[in-house]
Hints:
Blueprint: E1 3-7, H1 14-25, E2 29-31, H2 32-40, H3 44-51, H4 53-68, E3 75-77, H5 86-95, E4 96-102, H6 105-122, H7 137-152, E5 157-160, H8 166-179, E6 189-193, E7 199-203, H9 211-217, E8 223-229, H10 230-246, E9 250-256, H11 265-277, E10 285-290, H12 292-304, E11 311-315, H13 318-324, E12 329-334, E13 337-344, E14 349-352, H14 362-367, H15 369-378, H16 381-396, H17 402-422, H18 437-447, H19 454-471, H20 477-489, H21 502-509, E15 515-516, E16 519-520, E17 522-527, E18 530-534, H22 538-548, E19 556-557, E20 560-561, E21 565-571, H23 583-586, H24 591-605, E22 607-613, H25 617-627, E23 633-637, H26 646-653, E24 659-663, E25 685-688, H27 693-718
Parallel strand pairs: 1-3, 1-4, 2-3, 4-5, 7-14, 8-9, 8-10, 10-11, 11-14, 21-22, 21-23, 23-24, 24-25
Antiparallel strand pairs: 6-7, 12-13, 15-16, 17-18, 19-20
Helix pairs in contact: 1-8, 2-4, 3-4, 4-5, 6-7, 8-10, 11-12, 13-15, 13-17, 15-16, 15-19, 18-19, 18-21, 19-20, 19-22, 21-22, 24-27, 25-26
Amino acid sequence: MRNIFLTGLSGSGKTTVGRILVQRLNKPFLDTDALVEAACGTSIPSIFSRHGEDYFRDCETRVLARAASTVGGAIIATGGGIVVRPANRVLMKEQGERIYLQVDPATALERLHAQRAAALARGDTPEIRPLLSGPDLLASLKALLSARSAWYEEADFNLSIQDKSAERVAQEILAMLIGSGKLDAVPPITRHIRVGEGYDAVVDWGGLGRLGQYLAQLRLPPRIFLVTDSNIHDLYTPAILQSLSRAGFEPLLYSLSAGEASKSQHQLNAIYDWLVERHAERREAIVALGGGVVGDLAGYAAATYLRGVPLVQVPTSLLAQVDAAIGGKTGINHPRGKNLIGAFYQPRLVLADPATLLTLPARERTEGWAEVVKYGMILDAELFAQLEANADLLRDFTRPPAELLCRLIARCIALKASIIEEDEREQGRRAILNYGHTVGHALENVAGYGQWLHGEAVSLGMIIAAAIAQQAGMIAEADIIRQRQLLAALGLPTAYDGPVQASTILAATQVDKKVASKQVRWIMPQSIGEVIVSTMPGDLVERVISTFFSPAARSFYGETIVIMLKIIVMHGPNLNTLGTREPAIYGTTTLADINAMLQKRGAQLGAAVESCQSNYEGGLIDYLQQHANEADGIIINPGALTHYSIALRDALAAVKAPVIEVHMSNIYAREPFRHHSVVAAVCQGHIVGLGWRGYLLALEGLVNLVQEHIHTHTEEEKQ
């Protein structure tokens, strides 16, 4: 992919959005205004006052040309007036993708006022924009937009940012680039699956933008029945429909509500109605574009409408790419159990584009790692070790490694293919693919579909299956600890906190698809990379599940820890630069070093430690809201946000788990504006001035605090 030029009025969020895109696309970020100031050695207001606008525009043109020549391309936030010069417009058209962030002047002005207030709160000098210095700023913005709008609209992509967060805008930009085939190419990986008539499963980074080309190779009739969900529809369908039309197809679109609740008989009937009303014919294909729900539902519709029409799976979630879309399982849920109604029906093609993971919400992306860990546990110790080695990179997903993702997904597809080629209809060895699913499916059903994502429930199911195996003497404790630590390191739940009772889980396991002769067949790990299918003693199963789902779920069997505590550690702005940032104050220990020390000490204390870092207030709050309910304790170093972020304070106040705030430096011995912490009042502890050791002290304090709470709760239950 070439450069990405972000254009638009001041206040449209070009710099903020650009910095988010940098984290997703592995490209440098350049800001033409900053480049002009660096080249001229003075501020933009000074350039205007000393030399005038024409001089500034000359400088701007020169730095734009240099920025556009960046090897490998860059994310370039341009000044609001860069489109004034024809030469600039020509260069941007030739050297990259132009994205116009559309904002109305009133909203732009609100954003500029907010930026000024934030700068003052930080003790910084607010940015001065020479062309917006008159008495009526709104009128100035309107005049600038009127003069420039035609030039802005020459862009390759026009995107309204109205009422959207910067994260959402970046997400939509990524979807535009993916759906239009604009991403940098990674060589595709193809696995031919020898089941039925045989079909290819292709892993192609950015392949969604080439969907029309792949479909053309299948020699399908022109009409395509595209089934997707509301999340994918809003992001991808404009580009996909245009791409399919260019390839000579006539796409018809059906969009269903996103979520597990749509995997129902009612929704299936609605798809049948849609197909019948449009006189869909037997040779015309259904294309399932979405996650596991869309793939299962549309796949079952394809299997049963006219006794079978061609099916193409285009999975957009990690879980669907490595598992749900592979192997021909299709179906819907029944009120009494998950996937009880369905059929085995193989597709004509599976096209997995890992780039779509760039637009997934963190929680939905994270759940998919459960199925990847599953493959490591049941079949591939080398894959498991590879996940351990890259867990931080894969969980964090800043600067996502495209080639590594493609290899991991392709490896999972190959592993599943080897199983289904041997046992297509789950009469034998294919059952091992259900490791962790017995309790996982039961939890999804009992808690209500959608309360727990499938991968989250499977993660807990694997914890329970390993605990049963360990209690039966089938697997070494070291292996179940490795499994638990890997799941936690990838951001998956390893402990349950909720209202579900063990008795309802036990009852739900009896309607599992693997029940034979009224006995549940459990997938039991013997070591990492090896499992067996076996019935297990009922009293052992009941004891493990009852302990796991008891109110005091962090329990012990003798001296063996069954459930570890989960501690999340949140690092705020600029902490990613530890090691090189002001070593006289913060030392030379890197953030990776701190996270490694915390994980090591956590394992010694019986705690799984999961870490995240964000340079954005919203990123920390989103992470907190997504993961706080799973955490037994929270360590947070908010960085500079501690001095002014009321939003972060409110998010922490809503958390049930105890929180300890950490600062590596002694904030009370530094500049006066650093002395006040707005978040301290909602924390159970506050540690400053101990460097990286403060994190370890906070971890030990939280573990002691939580274990004391669990002990007290358990004693009260006994009484």
